[in-house]
Amino acid sequence: MDDAELEDKEQLAIAPEEKKELCLNPVSGDGTPPTGEEGTEDEPVFVYKDIVNKLKAHQIIGAKFLWSHIAVEPNGFGCVLADFMGLGKTLQVITTVQAFLSKKVKDDSGDLRPRHKHVLILAPTICVRNWEAEVVKWLGKKEARRMGLHTLESSREKKMSDRVNVVKAWHKRGGVLIMGYELYRLLVLQSSGDEKIAAGNQKYAHLIKQMYPCLSDPGPDLIVLDEGHRVRDHKSKMVKALAHVKTSRRIILTGYPLQNHLEEYWTMVNFARQDYLGSLDEFKNRFVDPIKNGQCIDSSESDLRLARQRAFVLTRELKSLVLRRDQQYLFKQLPPKKEYVLMCKLTDAQAELYRTFLECGVPRRGKNQQVDVLGGYHISLAISNHPDVLLETFKQLQEEMRNGTLKKKGSAAKRGRIANIFGIEDGDDDYDPFVDIPGNSPPVESRGTRVVGDSSDEGEEEVLNALDALSQKTTPKLAPSTSDVLHRLSFAKNFMENYVPKKLESSGKMMLLMQILSECQDIGDRVILFSQSIPTLNTIGLMIAKHNKYQRRHAKRLSYLRIDGGTPQQDRFRQIAQFNDLEEDIDLIMISTKAGGEGINLCAGNRIIIFDVCWNPCNDSQSMCRSYRFGQTKPVFVYRFVTAGTMEKKVYDLQIRKEGVAKRIVDEKTMERKNVLNCSNFSNTSNWNIDALRHNAN
Q1: Which has the closest alpha carbon to 100: 130, 126, 76?
Q2: Gene3D superfamilies per the record (predicted)?
Q3: CB–CB of 216/244 below 8 Å?
Q4: Are 122 and 223 in contact (CB under 8 A)?
Q5: What is the helix (H) or strand (E) element at residue 119, kind and residue range?
Q6: What is the pLDDT of residues 125-173, one digit of tens each?
């Protein structure tokens, strides 16, 4: 459905405030409802009365789109609602689900009974309570109770017996069950026998096995996947669990349907409607390979022409299955949003540490001593954020070694500590470190500092070649080996012995951050900061504490909240509400990208800082849209911090390629070669003349 068609339909839709009734299954373009009797297939289906006047024109179209797929008799179909973040996908689903559960049919005796009984909504853990609150907000407590609203939250129902009881109560009574992805995966795979039941839950084995008919086969009448782009790896355990789902009525919600690879798009669409795009091999031959061949800057005209043709064909084939409205709908109804890419220079301290890292600190793994891409990039990122980020983990590991607590090879606790330095959160449900760097806006012209001599180019070039190879394929989730972790960080030992910590001046990013925070405080704008690294959030907290210590006036002290993977769910919900309360004295909320980048509303803030570059452009786009959505009343400013002359900048550039493909397939924008980097660029060491870049910097 193109923009012209949507505009025509919106003109036909009567303004919501003029509506008394809104039919989801009209028989004509002007909204005329069918005339069938109650309990028949062609009876009119109306939107719940309390929602009618709250739906915007594009949301009316979205609700009708969803209904047109799931309500097809006898078994319905699946579809994808891929509206840009902030356009109200949740409300469109609530509208559709309420009508779905309210529809009645006549049984053999002529009595009316519900046509459908069970709806299952899967969401990221942090979004579960938000879904519950949204259902009550739009339908009211009375209708939510009548419909049957059940919420299963792992932090609230901690015992397996309590979790089982919630599912059984929903299955018996009917209604809507909202639960997190990981809990669903656990219950389905263990109840189906695909995974062993954990030793601690053996006494509940008989209860767990009862979950299979509730959650899978026959399971719900309708399943909804919020942030459905999580279902992107066809080999993942989550996809394996969802393969057990029997119903064909499936709704996928995503604001970012195409993240890294077209294969991921295929996985998501294939769940919504199996074999719609053929097998994965067929899809690769027909679309992936031709489109990829036309992306490089040295692609021939015939390659580019074929890529455009295949992209057009793919977009056309998905029109009936995928409904996408881009951010232009927000631009028309909200204050303006401006994005800035701020190139930060490395300080002398960072330059020295980064030089040492490239010369002798690039980590390797396995018998073949291949570059550990995850370790290499995230150590580089830790240095770019602030040397204290590296120092924090380095000292902790040294202390554990002295105390003899680091002896157990591969222990879970030690792997968690290692993971921290690379930005991996233990508290996140399905964190994929290989799918975590941004790229939604083109880089602005800026002069930055390059800090390493020519002799160091070889180490960085090798890591970048490996990074580029990763961008071409799906990479397994691998945590860095822990057996030689101190050896990995030993390159920094001499530096750390003479390094003075807790200095703002040791990081270009940190100095810029504190300046922005102070100026935003002066003008009364609240700031939302995202980082993928827990130690980075710790360091920022220390810098704020140091700043506050020297402020005589209480009004100049910075007050902040923090949400990360270790924050309990009830505390996350409370802090989000506190931040959105304009009566509260809050200047900043710091959020780890994976713990709070999805599905939450932070409209009280209008200054967003993306402190470091994530591998997956989706993560940063999701983060930016926590503020720019319906409910925002102020202009929004987004500041994306990128350290010039480092791996972070090059990885950022690499993601422009992903953005080009996404715009062409999802938003039907023209794909241009100028936005694409050739893989061979990374093997050219002249691109890494750091001293030359430093000479040209301010």
Answers
A1: 76
A2: P-loop containing nucleotide triphosphate hydrolases (3.40.50.300), Tandem AAA-ATPase domain (3.40.50.10810)
A3: yes
A4: yes
A5: strand 118-123
A6: 888 988 999 999 999 999 999 999 999 987 777 788 899 999 999 999 9
Element (H, E) at 126: none
Cα 385 to chain centroid distance, Å, stands at 22
Angle between helices 89-102 and 57-70 (to 10 degrees): 50
Per the listing, tokens 């449900």 go with 429
* Residue 230 region by backbone torsions, left for phi larger than 0, else alpha for psi between -120 and 50, else beta: alpha
Is pLDDT above 80 for 460? no
For residue 673, give the 3-state DSSP assignment.
Answer: helix
Phi–psi pair at 237, nearest 5 degrees: -65, -30
Name every residue whose Cβ is closer than 8 Å to that of residue 122 and which is 6 or more positions away in sequence. Answer: 179, 180, 181, 184, 223, 224, 225, 226
Closest CA to 153 of 609, 675, 665, 568: 568
Report d(CA 532, CA 385) in Å as an integer.
11
530: part of which helix (H) or strand (E)?
strand 526-531
Tokens for 230?
A: 């999580």
Cβ count near 178 (within 10 Å): 25
Asked if residues 233 and 185 have their Cβ atoms less than 8 Å apart, the reply is no
Element (H, E) at 218: none
DSSP conformation letters of 636-660: EEEEEEEETTSHHHHHHHHHHHHHH
Model pLDDT for residues 477-514, shown as the tens digit of each residue: 444 444 456 667 778 888 888 889 999 999 999 999 99
Predicted confidence (pLDDT) at residue 471 exceeds the cutoff of 50 = no
pLDDT of residue 63: 96
Residue 566: phi and psi, rounded to 5, are -90, 0
DSSP 550-619: T-SSGGGS--EEEE-TTS-HHHHHHHHHHHH-TTS---EEEEEHHHHSSS---TTEEEEEE-S--SSHHH
d(CA 606, CA 624): 10
Tokens 């990479």, residue located: 475
pLDDT of residue 418: 47
Nearest alpha carbon to residue 221 among 79, 67, 116:
116
* Lowest mean per-residue pLDDT among 298-302, 426-430, 577-581: 426-430
Q: What is the dihedral of CA 397, 402, 408, 411, to 10 degrees?
A: -20
Confidence tier at 674 by pLDDT (50, 70, 90): very low
- Identify the CA nearest to 149 among candidates 186, 123, 121: 121
